[in-house]
Protein: Tetraspanin
Amino acid sequence: MLSLATFAIGLWVITSPKTLAYVLERAGPLKDLFPEEVLTVQLGVGIAMLSIFFVFISVMGLYGSINCSTFLLFMYAALVLLLMLLECAVFFYFTSNAEKKGVQASDGALGHTLRLALRCCDNVSDSMPWSCCGTKNCSREISFSKNCKDAMSDWLHHYGTIVYGSLIASHVILSSCSLLRRANSASRAHT
Structure:
């Protein structure tokens, strides 16, 4: 269901980004994280394609489970494990990049999100981004005092293993369930 809702949002970005920007503007803090210039056709197509891919994988696992298809269950397990590797690689890429450079002004919505989540600020100039304070009228006196590079490094050292472990555990459980179902259906076929 989540993939279908994501697909609908992707179609919404493709067909009418101005109305989505209007809805996000009315939603409060989301308007600053998703400005209208971010809502492009390329983003909508990417979101729609990813959601179709996830629906395809889910349907393959469901159909393989219902019909006891060993091939579909094996493909489902393999794709889930490949997705785990991809998620770990993407997480590692973004976190190592952010840990090296900190949060830059060019990071846009991701930079605002990181500053708010980590309660940090790298900007020491007079014009501070709103996310350095969490309010619209941000100044150096009321901004977060922690450096974002240090905050990101602390967060990764504290939670990195937990994130990787939970990614691996959830995907191994999903793959194991489909492989057990595959083994069970194969043993029934031989009896």
Remarks:
- Residues 22 and 28 are 11 Å apart (CA to CA).
